[in-house]
Structure formats: C-alpha cells, structure tokens
Amino acid sequence: MRIGNIDLGERPILLAPMEDVTDPAFRLMCKHFGADMVYTEFVSSDALIRSVSSTERKLQISDEERPVAIQIYGRFTEAMTEAAKIVEQAHPDIIDLNFGCPVKKVAGKGAGAGMLKDIPKMLEITRAVVNATHIPVTVKTRLGWDDNNKIITTLAEQLQDCGIAALTIHGRTRAQMYTGEADWTLIGEVKNNPRMKIPIIGNGDVTTPQRAKECFDRYGVDAVMIGRASIGHPWIFHEVKHYLQHGEEPPHEPFSWYMDILKQQVDDSIRRLDERRGILHIRRHLAATPLLKGLPDFRNTRIAMLRAETAGELYSIMDEITERYGR
C-alpha cells in the first residue's frame, strides 16, 4: 500500500492516534514491535496557531519512528490551513485531518466528529489543507453522525475529490462513541466502490491477530489501524504481523518478558514527564494490559499497583507480581 510516495508494504498495520497515549515513547515502542506507521496525539489547530507550548511539543517527531503522521483537528478553515503549514515545518510524512474524535469537548464544538454534521465545511477544510501543503494529506472519520445518517459511502468519494491521499474509517457513528461493535460492512462497501482509488484504512475493534486478518480478507481494506487494543499491549503489532505472515500466533514469551516491557513504559513516561506525572500517565496502560487480566486473587494487588505514587513502590509491586504469577 502506498500513501503518496510512502510505501507501507502489503497489509500494513498502523498505530491509531490517541490523546494522552501516542506520545513519542509509545510510538517508538509500537514501531519496534512492528507498527508500519504511527500517528501523534491530536493537535488542536487553534492552540497551535496561538503557539501554546504544550501543543507545540506534540509536533516533536524523530526519524526512528518514520513514517509518522501528525494529526490536527479544528472547525475553522483558516485555522486548520495555518496549522497545517506549521505542522509541515515539523517534517512529518503525512498530515492527517481528524474528523472522527467523538468526545464532547471536541465534537460538541463542531470539530472532530462534529464535522459530520457540516459536510460542506468538512470538505472546504479538506480542500484548503490539501492545496496549502506539499505532503500527503489524509482523513480519519466515522460512518456518520448517528444510525440515521451513515453517510460514509458518499462522503468517501467527496473527500477523495478534495485530493486526499488515503482515508481511515472508524466503523462507528459519533453517537456510538466507543460503545457497541464496530460495523465494518460499510468500510468494505467504500473499499469495494470502483470509483474509490485511494487506500482505505479500517479501524475499530481490532483486538486480535485473527480479527486483523479477517478484516483484510473479508472487507478488502488496504491497511488496518489498531487503537485501544495497543494500550498496555504494544507487542500486539508483533503478534498481528507474525500471524499475517505465518498463519499462527508467535510463541509466548516468559511472563517477565512482558512485564519488562511495561516497566520500560513506566521508565519512558517518568523520563518524559517527571515521577508523579509519569506514573499518573502510565496508569492507563497498566490498567488496560491483557497481561494481568484473569490472574487469580489479583484484585488487591491491582489496586495497590494503580495507587502507587513513587517509581520504587510501583516497581516493587511489579516485581512481586512477576514472582507470584510468572509462568
């Protein structure tokens, strides 16, 4: 699959953009485990053109994580265009437009998935950004606003006509948020539309290697994007790539091997932020990791781990978990 002049190979697996998750360290870790392309956290166009320092830091990318896309969101054409020009100076491989974020503070203000209620404005912004930049521009969106407005089959053609280089579709409506099951049937319809010439990337509920393969085989998408299933589970990219290549899951590593990866995430988070904020940031990964799910009599240990306030306390608990449950 190619996006512009970027060759991602056959059946690429991409790391989805996620706020407070896809920081530089996590992107590099997922890249290490086989992610073919990674995305930054969401970048607010309004904050970027106002030179908000916390937003500008999100533009920091490294050559080790390439190809990498920087994703921007907003509801004003001029702001999105100016933000795209600023982003281009950070030299990402791709600029991605976020028309899919469903959270109230974004979509409720007309940005992200809120754009699904104002298609003319969405197309105006897309066309303006494409014309204002010199690198590939892609879009990530949803099936529609709600079950009565699943417009993606028509919208995909309109976005293609604006000049985008690829389209990612999350198989839910904005009204669904992240509930229910992702519906890939409409993603497949878009991909199998003979008028569509750009790559179609599918996203939503890809949590296992088997499901990733099914999405390629059944719906014909050019790439699969993994989001929430990578939280606390960055090695999922290795599992998926191995399954796609060999038709079987890779051999299980020792329990301590996986725990060492989580420890590395703790280290990276503390180094990037500081001890207090780093531990707060990484709790989402520790709470979500499948490594610790289903362990017997684990409830109290889990609570202690998620309440730990110092690195020493947290590492001690993690070592105790390895000693007690390692297998």
Textual characterization of the structure:
The protein is an alpha/beta fold. Helices cover 44% and strands 14% of the residues. It is built from 14 helices and ten strands. The strands form two sheets. It has an eight-stranded parallel sheet. A two-stranded antiparallel ribbon has the order 1-2. α13 runs antiparallel to α14. The protein is globular. The model has no long low-confidence stretch (mean pLDDT 96).
Task: Provide tags for this entry.
14% strand, alpha/beta, 10 strands, 14 helices
Short description:
By secondary structure, this protein is α/β, with parallel strands linked by helices.
Low-confidence stretches: none
The span between the termini is: 39 Å
- Structural class of the helix and strand makeup? alpha/beta
Task: Compute the number of helices.
Answer: 14
- The average pLDDT score comes to 96
- What is the H/E order? EEEHEHHEHEHHEHEHEHEHHHHH
Integer-rounded radius of gyration: 20 Å
- The number of E-state strands comes to 10
Share of residues in strands: 5-15%
Q: What's the overall geometry?
A: globular
Strand order of the largest sheet: 3-10-9-8-7-6-5-4
| Helix fraction by DSSP (H/I, runs of at least 4) | 40-55%
Largest sheet: 8 strands, parallel
Question: Would you spell out the secondary-structure blueprint of this structure?
Answer:
Blueprint: E1 2-3, E2 6-7, E3 13-15, H1 24-32, E4 38-44, H2 45-49, H3 53-56, E5 68-73, H4 77-88, E6 94-99, H5 104-107, H6 119-132, E7 137-142, H7 152-161, E8 166-170, H8 185-191, E9 200-203, H9 209-219, E10 223-226, H10 236-246, H11 255-272, H12 275-288, H13 299-307, H14 311-325
Parallel strand pairs: 3-10, 4-5, 5-6, 6-7, 7-8, 8-9, 9-10
Antiparallel strand pairs: 1-2
Helix pairs in contact: 4-6, 9-10, 11-12, 11-14, 13-14
